[in-house]
Amino acid sequence: MRLGFQNPFRLPYLHINADMNASGNEDKIEHIRSACVIGLGGIGQALIESLVEAKFLSLYSLSRREKLSVHLTHDTKYHHHQIQAYSESALEEVASKIGKLDVLICTLGTLKNETGSPEKQIGALNEAQMLHYFKVNTWFPSLVLKCFWKNLKSDKPATMAFLSAKVGSIEDNHKGGWYGYRSTKAALNMIIKTASIELSKKAPNLKLYAIHPGTTDTDLSKPFQSYLPDGQLRSAQESSQYIVKNLLNNPAPSGSFLNWDGSQLPW
Ligand SMILES: NC(=O)c1ccc[n+]([C@@H]2O[C@H](COP(=O)([O-])OP(=O)(O)OC[C@H]3O[C@@H](n4cnc5c(N)ncnc54)[C@H](OP(=O)(O)O)[C@@H]3O)[C@@H](O)[C@H]2O)c1
C-alpha cells in the first residue's frame, strides 16, 4: 500500500514540526529521532506517515502484514519486520534486531471479529470471544511491553504508548455494553499503570502511556459508524497526527491515560 502525502484529510493547523512540542515551544524535541510502530492497521499505517512527517530519522514497523510503500522524506530510513503471529519468540527476535528507540507505539486491538460482535448484554458473554479480546487487546500489548521496553533509550526521555480506548475507562463508563472490549482495554490500562510503577526505578527516563486515539475511520470502527453523531469520526491520518503531536513532550507523568488531544482521561 502506498501512503500518499497529499491526502484530503490533512489539517493545515495540525502540521507536525519535530522542533515543536505539545505546547508549541521550540525545545527539547530535537533528540526524538527513532520510532517503532507495532501493528499496521488503519491507525498504525497512518502513524508511519505522521512519524516521517515529524522527521523521525529511523523508523521501524512490525506486523503480520507486508511492508508499506512509504514516501520517505529527509534522511529517514524505514525497516519493516513481518511476523506470522504476535508470539513472544517472534517479538523477542525483532527486539534483538532493531536499534534503540525514542518512541514506540503499539496499535494492536480488536473490537468486532470472527468470535462475534461486542456483547450488549450479560447473556451474550461467551468464553471464546472473551479470551480472544483478552489475547489481542491485553496480552499482545503486554508482550510488546515485556519484549521491547529495554529497546527504549535509557539516557534520554523516551515514550512507549499503547492505543487503548476511552470505553476502557471504568470511571467514564455511563452507557454499559461492549463487555469484552471495555474489560480488556481496562486490563491493558492496569498493565500500563502497574509497569509504570516498576519501571519508574529501572528506567526513570521512560514514560508509559495508554492513549485513546478518538473515533477513527478504520476497519475496526466501520461496523459502528452509522451510530455516531455527526462530526465525531476522524480520518486515520488526522488521528495519527494528533497522537504524534500530543505524545511528544507530553507533560503527563508516566502511567497516564491520555486522550487524543493530549489531556488526561480518568482510569
Ligand atoms: N478506530 C477507532 O475508532 C478506535 C477507537 C478507540 C480505540 N482504538 C484502538 O486503536 C488501535 C488501532 O485500531 P485501528 O482502528 O487502527 O484498527 P485496525 O485497523 O483494525 O487495526 C488493528 C490492529 O490490531 C491488530 N490485530 C487485530 N486483530 C488481531 C488478531 N486477531 N491477532 C493479532 N493482531 C490483531 C492488527 O495487527 P496486524 O497489523 O498484524 O494486522 C492491526 O495492527 C486499537 O488498539 C483499537 O482498539 C481505535
Descriptive report:
- The protein is an alpha/beta fold and 267 residues long.
- The chain has one domain (27-258): NAD(P)-binding Rossmann-like Domain (Rossmann fold), CATH 3.40.50.720.
- Helices cover 30% and strands 15% of the residues.
- It has five helices and nine strands; from the N terminus they run ββαβββαβαβαβαβ.
- A seven-stranded parallel sheet has the order 5-3-2-6-7-8-9, with helices on both faces.
- Strand 8, helix 5 (236-247) and strand 9 (256-258) form a beta-alpha-beta unit.
- Helix 2 packs parallel to helix 3 (127-148) and helix 3 packs parallel to helix 4 (179-202).
- 43% of the residues are buried.
- The protein binds NADP nicotinamide-adenine-dinucleotide phosphate (NAP).
- NADP nicotinamide-adenine-dinucleotide phosphate binds next to helix 1.
